[in-house]
Each structure stands twice: as structure tokens, then as C-alpha cells.
Specification:
Elements lengths: L4 E5 L3 H13 L3 E5 L2 H11 L3 E4 L8 H10 L8 E5 L4 H9 L4 E4 L4 H12 L3
Parallel strand pairs: 1-2, 1-3, 3-4, 4-5
Helix pairs in contact: 2-3
Length: 124
């Protein structure tokens, strides 16, 4: 069976490195984008099984990326899990209206994130 592909869109390089190791250890293939524009183009090109998305990033931010994912025929149905350091209810509400599958505030419990990813991918 092919590995499930996860696209991580986040500009915090140390966080990305740590989480990539954990995801790969759990059998996922990981692709990375370090800014909004890169995340949008990678998602369209790669069509991952799941996207882990930061909110506060260069080149537009996570909400802009999420809006783009939902408007594009190649990405509109890809599950998106937000992983952010921004504990802002308004941002969370916007993300939920745009159909995110989960919303985690950093620092996160990595085991809970892994469970959410597994849950989301059951239906892919």
C-alpha cells in the first residue's frame, strides 16, 4: 500500500524538522513548504492526502492558503489540520467555516496530532 502523503506548510524550521521525523516514523511521506505561496503551489501540484497548515506565515498567511485550497478543484476536498501558535478565536472560527478538520495551538501534544491525522486519513 502506498504511503499517505502529508504536506506541511509552516515557516518554523525546527518545528517542521521535528514533526517531519515523527510523521516519517509513523509511515507517512512528507512534503514541506515554508510559506503561503509555496504551500498553495505544492498542494495543487502534489495533491497530498492531508495538509498541516500554520496560520502565521510569510507570503499571505494560513487563512489565505486555506481560502485558496477551498477554491481550487485539485485541493478543495483535501483535509486540512491547522497547527498554529496563534490562540485567536476569530481566526479559529474563520478556519472552521472554511472546513478545517482540526485546530491545534502550539505547543501541541504530538500524540493527539498523530491521532487526528490518522482519523482524518481513514476516510481518504
Amino acid at each position: 500500500m502506498a504511503k499517505k502523503k502529508i504536506l506541511m506548510v509552516d515557516d518554523e524550521k525546527e518545528w517542521v524538522k521535528m514533526l517531519t521525523l515523527r510523521l516519517e516514523h509513523n509511515g507517512y511521506e512528507v512534503d514541506i513548504a515554508f510559506d503561503t505561496a509555496g504551500g498553495i503551489s505544492q498542494a495543487i501540484k502534489l495533491r497530498p492526502d492531508c495538509i498541516l497548515l500554520d496560520i502565521m506565515m510569510p507570503a499571505g498567511g494560513g487563512i489565505m492558503a486555506l481560502e485558496n485550497f477551498r477554491k481550487n478543484a485539485n485541493t478543495f476536498n483535501i483535509p486540512v489540520i491547522v497547527v498554529t501558535a496563534k490562540p485567536d478565536n476569530q481566526t479559529k472560527e474563520i478556519a472552521e467555516k472554511l472546513g478545517v478538520s482540526g485546530y491545534f495551538i502550539k505547543p501541541i501534544d504530538a500524540a493527539k496530532l498523530m491521532e487526528k491525522i490518522k482519523e482524518v486519513l481513514l476516510y481518504k
